[in-house]
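Slide 14.
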Amino acid sequence: MAKSTTIFVCNGCGHRAPKWLGKCPECEEWNSFAEEAVKSNSPRSRQKNSPSQKRVQPITEIAGGESQRFSTGLEELDKVLGGGLTVGSLVLVGGDPGIGKSTLMLQSMGLAAGKGKKVLYVSGEESPEQIKLRAERLGSLSDTLLVSSEICIEDILDLVDKIKPEILVLDSVQTFFTRELTSAPGAIGQVREVAFRVMQEIKPRGIPTFLIGHVTKEGALAGPKALEHIVDTVLYFEGEKNHAYRILRAVKNRFGPTPEMGVFEMCRDGLRPADNPSEIFLSERPEDAPGSVIVSIAEGSRPLFVEVQALASSSSSIGMPRRMATGIDPNRVSLLIAILEKRQGLHLQGEDIFVNIAGGIRISEPAADLGVAAAIAGSFRNISIDPGIVMMGEIGLAGEVRSILNLDTRLLEAERLGFSQCIIPTLPKNWSQPGEGRLKIKPVKNLGEALEAVFKTVVSDSF
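Slide 15: predicted structure.
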C-alpha cells in the first residue's frame, strides 16, 4: 500500500528537505520552503510494476534519420524552432504577462489548423468564450482548432487519448495540477510534475506540445530550473510593452541551432513577422546625433543591426554619478566606461552616463562593445559619428579589440543594407572580403585606433 510522505520543497530552486528550513542550502533564499505531500511506493512494488528493461545495442545499429517537421504557419516561429515544429517535441514558451504569448500560440495554431492539422488548445486562464473572441480578432477560427478549459492534467491526457490531436498547447503550465500532489496549482512541485507527466505521455504518441510559462520579476521562467531541462526547446518572448516589436529567442533547442531569434510586429490583428528587422530598428535613427552608432549582433544564423544610443552629461551628484543601461547588461557598460577612463584618458568620473538599445531589443553579445564605447565617447566629446559607419568587435581589459564570430555574414548584411564603412577587429591572414567590395573595411587593433577611425575631425591626442 502506498504511503503518504510530507516533504518540503524550495520554491526557488526545487531543493527537497525532510523538514522545514529557514534558508535554502542550495540557492540561499530565505523562507522559500513549502510543504508538499507525495506518495511513494515500496521498492518491491516499484520493481514489480516496472516495465521490462530494453535491449542495449550499439549506437551504429540504431535506426535513425532526420526529425520529421512541419510548419506552424508563422515563418519567424518556424525559423526559431530550427525549420519547423518537430514531431514529439516539448516546447516551453516563456515571457512576461501580457507580452503576447497566448496571441502567438493562438495565431500560429489557427494557421496550422487551417492547413488541416488537428490542434487541441487547453487554457487554464481563459474561458472558451474568451479564446473565441481573440481567435476572431486574429482570424484564427477553424473547425480543427479544438478548445478546452480543463486544468487537471489527468483529465487533459484522457482528452488527448480520445481526440488524438496532432498538436497540443497548454496555456499556462502554472495553472495545471496533478491529483498525485495535494499542493495548489503553481506550486513548485506541481509545475515540475505536470511538465514531467506531459513529457512522458507525448513522446510515445509523437504529439508536438507547447507549454506556455510565466517569468519572474528577475526574468527567469517561474518554477524550478529543472523545468528547462525537461523540455526539448525553450523560447523566450521578449519586448517592451510600449514598443510594437517583439523578439522570440531560442535559448535551448535539441532540434535546431541556438541562439536563434525571430522578430514580430504587434498589430491590431495580431503578430506580423518582420521580414527585415534591421531596417525596422534603423528606420527612426536621428541624423548627426552625438552618441549614436550602429552595431552588428548575431542571433543564430541571422545578423542584426541595431542602434546604440549613449548620453553623457555632467552629474549633479557629488561623487555618485548615475550609470543606467537599457537593453544591455549594466555591468558590461560599467566595464567599458572603466576601459575608456584607463586606456583612453576620458575623465568620466563626474559624468552621468545612460546607454540605450533603440527599439526595445536586448543584446548580450560582446561584439557590441566597440559600438557602445564609441557612443559614450562621442556623447562625451559631443561629436557625431558618420551614419554610414557600422562597428563590431569585443573589447578586452587592455583596450584591445578581439575577434568575433560570423564576420563574413555580418559584412555581407552590412553591404546589403548600404553601409559605407565597417570598423572590425584585426583580420586573419589570407582573409578575403565577401560580397562585391563596395563596403570599406577598417581593421583596428585597439580601442584607440577605432576611435580615431570614427572621429576623423578630432586629433588623436584628445582620445
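Speaker note: Confidence is low (pLDDT under 50) at residues 42-50, 457-462.
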